[in-house]
Amino acid sequence: MTRAAPNMIASTLVKYSGPGLAEPSGIADQDQMADEPTRGRYGGAAKPIGRIHWAGAETSDIWNGYMDGAIRSGRRAAAEILTRTS
Ligand SMILES: Cc1cc2nc3c(=O)[nH]c(=O)nc-3n(C[C@H](O)[C@H](O)[C@H](O)COP(=O)(O)OP(=O)(O)OC[C@H]3O[C@@H](n4cnc5c(N)ncnc54)[C@H](O)[C@@H]3O)c2cc1C
Fold it and tell me: What confidence score (pLDDT) does residue 75 get?
């Protein structure tokens, strides 16, 4: 993945938000596709936390953000709950 140059980011900030952002004190960027918990999803990780199981389109591994993903995630969460051992 090509990272945007800091001056390109600054010029975009100025274009949309005004000259006050011409010289930011710093710019931090993150490769969200490399972020293990989310893999670029809008939502968070789908792994259960204790007895809390997550469903919803944004937790789906495929068709993330669409109806198909929502239904798949519901089925996945239901299966997780049905196979709980504790
Ligand atoms: C304008 C628009 C067009 C779209 N077009 C398409 C399309 O053409 N094809 C496609 O596949 N997808 C489309 N989508 C995406 C699709 O609608 C969503 O991915 C899908 O509905 C998500 O389902 P979900 O069950 O994850 O969440 P949601 O459908 O958002 O369901 C969440 C439910 O939880 C309820 N809720 C929230 N907070 C609480 C609470 N505290 N207590 C109790 N209930 C709560 C909400 O009221 C809601 O009913 C579109 C989305 C939008 C906004």
Answer: 96
Q: Is residue 43 lining ligand 1, measured as CB closer than 6 Å? A: no
Report phi then psi at 78, rounded to 5. Answer: -65, -45
**Phi, psi of 49, deg, nearest 5:** -115, 105
Q: What is the pLDDT of residues 13-22, one digit of tens each?
A: 899 999 988 8
In a domain, 80, yes or no: yes
Cβ atoms < 10 Å from Cβ of 13: 16
- Any atom of ligand 1 within 6 Å of the Cβ of 57: yes
Number of domains in the chain: 1
Give the separation between CA 72 and CA 59, rounded to whole angstroms: 9
- Count of Cβ atoms closer than 10 Å to residue 54 Cβ: 17
Closest listed residue to residue 42, CA positions, set 28, 60, 67: 60
**What's the CATH number where 85 sits?**
1.10.10
